[in-house]
Amino acid sequence: MGVKIDFAAFPWMSQLQEWAGGLQATCLIIIGILTVVGIAMFIAGRLSSSQQVQKVSATIILWAFIAGVAIAVIFAFLVWATGFDLGF
To answer: 7 near 13, Cβ under 8 Å?
Structure first.
């Protein structure tokens, strides 16, 4: 005897799975854009010898990396814990 989890029990469950996958993809795309902007800023800072721009761009790149890892881990845990197929 036990509880069997049925994620198809409600009609909105498939829509929630699609939204979760779309949210993850959107977040990762935004982080990718921020990483490219940070790299461009870093290169511009190196070419113009601006240490302040280099520090700010390195911070942007670091936080983008941390956010990317955090999002990947959170959604991987969600998939593991629930068995959702997020479309990836």
So the answer is: yes
